[in-house]
Amino acid sequence: MPRATDILIVLTYAMIAVVAALAFDRFGLMSTSFAWLMGAFVFLIAGQAHSAAARSIERKTFEQEIHELQAANLSIIEEMEAAQARIETIAGAIRAEAVEREAALTNEVKVLEDLVRRMGAVPPSQRGATIAPDATGDIDIEVVRDALEQNRVDLYLQPVVSLPQRKTYFYESYTRLRDAKGAIIAPAVFIRAAEEAGLVGEVDNLLLFRCIQIVRRLTKSDRRIGIFCNLSLRSLTDETFFPAFLDFMRRNSDLAGSLIFEISQNAFDERSPAAARNMARLADYGFRFSIDQVRNLDIDLAEMQRAGIRFAKVEGQRLIEAVRTGEQIAQIEAGAIRPEDIAGLFARYGVDLIAEKIESESTVVEILDIDVAYAQGHLFGEPRPVKEEILETTADSVRLAS
């Protein structure tokens, strides 16, 4: 209680004592000396009562403060325990993620080492095999092997756009090799060299693996990117490569929304039971498939749906030709389906139709009459190499080299 208040209270009690003494004396209730003694006694009793009341109030206040401190202390302890639990949860998640990343990296290195080892295991009789497939020049398998071992693998992307807006929704990827001098090795050349040396399967596998490594880096900052990546029938049926590759994809199943495996129609039709099972395993992890080079439009859409096929690419001119001649499409009797209903028929089975190799505006006009939702071709953009800085830093979206 403030000191000034205490002084006022004491003065008040003193005045009460004086008034009481004067009253006792005035009314003759007692002698003057005894009246003043009684006044002093009243002052003492009042002071003691006030002191006791003040101590009681202070004690209650002190007890209340202690209670509040105890409650605050308990609250702090609870918050600390909750924070510690959150820290332990986060630490556990970080440790688990680190273990997962380490396992994925170990698996990735193992796959690459195995592929490179298999590339190097060429019989002496086949080493140095040199071919001249066309005017692009000669090349031997050692140049191809060196390009793969030194990671001189570039990713080219070509946009797949929506119609009629022409907004880019997907990209198709193409892998290209460079020799030690930086010159591009044409696909026909290195594939022929690989076939000559009996290494085409290893080359297919390495190119596929390199493509996925690059796609994984591209999609770090934007999971909305959808990229078609070619998958050969040899890779699907390679009993040495595919189990490790499947485990790698399982560990990178977060790419399922961005990566679409693409095989040709012939490969899809000729796939073995083992290849079909391996496709199903990839589909179990959420990965989608596309078929390209579609020449026969009388396809079984139900079978494609069961196999996880979500896209079908048909050359624009081939699609227009099928409509003009009234061919049988998707097991629908010839002439029984209107051109504008073809894309809808595919869509009912979860398959988006893509018109590819579009090179003129007149073709676009006819494709729009068929109501195809997506298109691809040089008219909308040629395949261009991904800039190196995109692979080194995160980007807001995929940019292509000009």
TrEMBL record:
Do you know which SUPFAM superfamilies this protein is assigned to? EAL domain-like
Coiled-coil regions listed: 66-115
Does the keyword section mention Cell inner membrane? no
- All copies of the EAL domain together span 137-397
- The answer to keyword Nuclease applying to this record is no
Q: Which residues cross the membrane?
A: 7-28, 34-54
Q: Which UniProt keywords apply?
A: Coiled coil, Membrane, Transmembrane, Transmembrane helix
Superkingdom of the source species: Bacteria
Identification of the protein by name: EAL domain-containing protein
Supply the source organism for this entry.
Answer: Hyphobacterium marinum
Q: What does the organism's lineage look like at the top?
A: Bacteria, Pseudomonadati, Pseudomonadota, Alphaproteobacteria, Maricaulales
